[in-house]
Design brief:
single chain, 336 residues, alpha/beta, 14-stranded mixed β-sheet, 4 helices, 14 strands
Amino acid sequence: MKKLSGWQKAGMIAGVGCFSILSVLVIGVVVAVLWARSTIAELGDTTPATVERTIPISAPAADVTAASATAEPAAAGGAAAAGTETSSPPLNLTIDLQEGVFTIRPGSAGGQVQVQGTFAPGLYELTENHDAAARRSTIRFRSKAPMWARIFAGFGGSDDSADRPELTVLIPPGAPMDLTLRVSMGESRIDLGGLSLGNLDVDASMGDHRLDFGRPVSGSVRRLRLDASMGNLSVENLGNARPQAVETAGSMGNLTADLGGAWAPGSDAALSFTQSMGELTLRVPSEVRLQTDFRNTEGERAERPPVDAAGSTDPQAPLLRLRVTSSMSETRVVRY
């Protein structure tokens, strides 16, 4: 047998080493997949099931009044106190949804949230938490399986898009509330038109999301805050929310906002958009007045992007004070 040279011995050793490492990796992945599937199987039934749940989010006003009257001493005129209405603070409602296809829209009046849809009860959970004293309610939907188990369990499997959770959340109109929405790792279609909103916070990430105000809200939103990251967010009919102030922050994705809608005549709104590593598109109706201030992340004035057409010159037309701060992103302002 011919004696191997030094380079040939080195090549053989390297080849054996690479093969050994590759074998260990393959065995490790197989073990991880089996472990992940075993972990998920232990959680319960993975077959999607239909869910219809009614979630009361506030006590009737009569109950609140009665409770206040009971607390009054009889000598102070309990009967009079029983008939005295005291204005209660708005409800603080938080809806936190992860991993699915979600629809959020107005439902029927009555102080109850309706949740309808399909999901596997062994893999996902729908929970609620209430604090009557603080008038706070939280509704959460999320996966029960750890992320690593879901990733490895999907290796070598079939397309499970048909088993993806789908939920519709119906919010009762008429009840004054401060609303917080968090939607991530999925798709969402949100229409808040017609609701009675004070402060509105929307956090949309890791997916494709659409926020709409299909018709004017009851009253006006005091402050609207939008956070968007690692995905796309489009906002339609922002004027129907009639916000007094808008604060948005977008990163690693695209944000498109249509500023049209039923702005109140003579109204004055401050709109702040901050965008990094993505594209910001603002569509502005011609019947509003627009003041713009474009800055970079250091606070220095930036070049103003071209605007297709001039706005209204009517002194009673709604005034939008627009401030845009951008970094590594493109901003477009389109008049229509």
